[in-house]
């Protein structure tokens, strides 16, 4: 009698159960997320940026500027990809270090650019007013891009959300800093670089503090 009731209970509970669809690979989910965001960013750059002014600002150091932009871009993309891999239990924790070399390269190249601008007698401004606009830009763009990225990351229901959130925050901040360069009205100074670093830390810190709430399973 007990076995019959147990079988009946199992049948009742499983009657409306839908098949579980396997989740795509972390790499595929990362690429589809980036592909969804890229057209919006590209459209904003195409419509609102001034390429001629951008090149004029960095005349004489185009190579260094290109490397700096590449380091920022790689930091953003690899951070997002790493976040998707780390969100899945059992994946290698080495993904935590994936964006680190490019992040360090970004800071070193930006610092070298500041020094080069100072030596050449460029825009070595001491004001912080315009630099604060950069902070607001990085934080604001990150806030706009955060919901779709965090929603996609939450689909994996990460067991340890802190590193996932930190990588996602770094990806957002680096991507926002990359976009900022297309709208930056002046060469980067030491104050600008310091403010950029603060903005990145603010974004990473906020996303990190909100890790469990932001990555709650959708």
Automatic annotation (TrEMBL):
Keyword tags: Membrane, Transmembrane, Transmembrane helix
Transmembrane segments: 30-48, 69-88, 94-114, 134-151, 163-183, 190-210
Source species, domain of life: Bacteria
Signal sequence residues: none
Protein name in the entry: DUF1109 domain-containing protein
């Amino acid at each position: 009698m007990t076995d019959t009731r147990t079988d009946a209970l199992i049948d009742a509970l499983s009657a409306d159960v839908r098949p579980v669809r396997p989740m795509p690979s972390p790499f595929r989910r990362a690429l589809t997320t980036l592909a969804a965001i890229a057209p919006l960013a590209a459209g904003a750059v195409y419509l609102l940026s001034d390429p001629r002014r951008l090149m004029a600002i960095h005349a004489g150091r185009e190579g260094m500027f290109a490397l700096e932009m590449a380091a920022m871009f790689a930091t953003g993309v690899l951070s997002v990809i790493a976040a998707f891999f780390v969100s899945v239990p059992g994946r290698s924790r080495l993904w935590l270090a994936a964006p680190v070399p490019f992040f360090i390269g970004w800071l070193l190249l930006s610092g070298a650019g500041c020094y080069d601008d100072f030596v050449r007698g460029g825009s070595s401004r001491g004001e912080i007013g315009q630099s604060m606009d950069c902070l607001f830009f990085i934080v604001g763009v990150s806030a706009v891009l955060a919901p779709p990225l965090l929603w996609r990351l939450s689909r994996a229901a990460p067991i340890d959300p802190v590193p996932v959130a930190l990588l996602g925050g770094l990806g957002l901040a680096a991507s926002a800093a990359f976009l900022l360069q297309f709208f930056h009205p002046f060469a980067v100074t030491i104050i600008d670089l310091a403010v950029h670093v603060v903005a990145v830390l603010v974004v990473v810190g906020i996303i990190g503090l909100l890790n469990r709430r932001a990555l709650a399973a959708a």
